[in-house]
Every structure is written in C-alpha cells, then in structure tokens.
Amino acid sequence: MAEYTLPEVQLDWITPSAEQVMARHARVSTSNPDRDDFEKLLAYCIKHSHWSVFEQACASFEITTTRAISQQILRHKSFNFQELSQRYSDPTDVLERHTASAANFELRAQDHKNRQNSIEYADSDIEERFRPRINQLFSDIQKLYDDMLSASVAKECARNILPVAMPTRLHMTGSIRSWIFYVGLRSAPGTQKEHKLVSDLIGRSLIKLLPVTICAVLSQAESGSSQGLTGWNFIQ
Q1: CB-side exposure of 221: number of CA atoms within 13 Å?
Q2: Predicted local confidence at residue 115, as pLDDT
Q3: How sure is the predictor about 116, in pLDDT bands with cuts at 50, 70 and 90?
Q4: Pairing outcome for strands 167-175 and 58-66
Q5: CA 77 to CA 181: how far, in whole Å?
C-alpha cells in the first residue's frame, strides 16, 4: 500500500515586509507612518477588531489536496483561486505521486450526534472489509480512464468517472485578514479532518511569517473574546 501523501501546503508568496506594511497603512493619518515600532499597534488593532488594517497585505499558498476538500476550500469567497483543470490535464499524470495513494484515504465512522463530524471506528475489521474493494474500484477507474483517453475521448468527458478522492492542486490568494479568519474557522473542531490538516499547515506557516500578528491573534483566541479565532487554539 502506497503511503498517503496528502495534504501538502507551501507558500507561493507574501507581501514583502507584510507586518511593516500593515502598520504603516494603519498610521496613514499620522505625520510619521514609517516608525519602526509596530508590535503594540498591531496587537491593539486585533484586540479592538480593527480588521481593515490586515487587508493591506496578502499571501498566496499552493495547496495539494483532494477534489472532495477543494470543494470546501472554494466556498471561502474572500479568496481568489486557480485550480488544476481536469478539462485540460490528466490529474493522474500531473499529480502521479499523489494519485498512487488516492485509494488510501482514512475510513472513519459517522458521528450520529453531529452529522458534521466523524469518529474513529471501534470496529477493527473495517479496513479488512472495505479496503480491498476500494483498491479494486480505484484500479478499475484508472484503467477505464486511461482507456478512454487512449480512444481520444476528451478529458472534459472522461473526467466524469474520476472520484472526489483524486488529487488536485490549487493556488489560494487572500488578505492577511482572510487568512486569520480562515484558520480561525477551519482549524476548529467540527471541520473535516482532511480540511483541518490543510488549515493547520497554513496556520503554522503564518506563525513563522507573521510572528507579531499571529502572537496577538493567539492571545485573543486563548481569551475566547473572538469566536471567529477559535481554530487558532487547535492547530496541531
């Protein structure tokens, strides 16, 4: 069995000197907006919900995940996206390393107390019962897809047989404000595990990229004063 490789996240780019830029723009009404000290200013803005300051810098991440999770990510309308197109490319070729392990997604039980949640199976035999059938299905789909392309069936038609567990790659671009609240939502309990893993990777990256800003965000999240920041308490 191939090792499961998803998700993967890497930074595309971030506004140079992003925290200095946001602080300078926050001081637009002052005579000296270029002062070097900005830690207290950004912390104050976060504490008092002056979020427009954090729209003055942006970041973009490349995310490799599955079609099932990219559909959830695309619902975040404050971002801009560019995703791999199955009309123009063969995802099993472009993302071959991930395709090889696509059938190895985790099996969890439905949480009947919360339909948005899943839990670990108490039944230790569940893998033995279903994994061989899953592997066979994915093998059959791959062969059928390859045969269709070999017969010159258009990719935009052949893609209809591909499962949502197939890998995809997208670029997600947004303001620092949007990223703060994306992680605040998607790293919180109740998010699908595979999506939370994406959010956690982005959150850990932002902690390094924006140490002053995220330190203040974490302080507010820990205080519980802003429900929209809850996920920052659960980054793993």
Answers
A1: 21
A2: 85
A3: confident
A4: antiparallel
A5: 12
Residue owning tokens 């990223």:
179
Active site residue 186: yes
Locus of tokens 């499962």 = 163
Task: Tell me the C-alpha distance between 61 and 66, whole Å.
Answer: 16
pLDDT tens figures, 3-40: 899 999 999 999 999 999 999 999 999 999 999 899 99
Tokens matching residue 55: 């729209």
Continuous segment of H or E residues that includes residue 13: strand 8-14
Choice among 115, 129, 186, 204 that is catalytic: 186
**Residues with Cβ within 8 Å of residue 3, at least 6 apart in sequence:** 101, 104
Domains of the chain by start residue, with CATH: 8-234 (3.30.1360.170)
Q: Is residue 72 very low, low, confident or very high in pLDDT (cuts 50, 70, 90)? A: very high
